[in-house]
């Protein structure tokens, strides 16, 4: 377990970046959701990074939703 002042790194998925608009908002939203649903801090960061990186593969902030259907 890492303690205060220690550094750790998380892998971020490689994606074809088309548009980063909204990625930070999606990251923060996903992070808060996963922290509040009892995930560890590190797991919440990883899940948020995974989610936010995927949103960068689409133009605009909502086009990725069409892939969920």
From TrEMBL:
One Pfam family of this chain: PfkB
Entries under Gene3D superfamilies matching the protein: 3.40.1190.20
Keyword Heme attached: no
A GO term for molecular function: kinase activity
Keywords: Kinase, Transferase
Database matches in InterPro entries: PfkB_dom, Ribokinase-like
Domain Carbohydrate kinase PfkB span(s) in chain numbering: 8-63
Keyword Repeat appears in the UniProt entry: no
Name of the protein this chain belongs to: Ribokinase
Organism lineage string: Bacteria, Pseudomonadati, Bacteroidota, Bacteroidia, Marinilabiliales
């Amino acid at each position: 377990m890492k303690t205060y002042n220690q550094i750790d790194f998380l892998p971020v998925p490689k994606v074809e970046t088309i548009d980063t608009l909204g990625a930070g908002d999606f990251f923060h939203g996903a992070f808060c959701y996963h922290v509040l649903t009892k995930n560890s801090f590190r797991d919440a960061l990883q899940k948020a990074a995974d989610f936010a990186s995927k949103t960068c593969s689409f133009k605009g902030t909502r086009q990725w939703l069409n892939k969920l259907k």
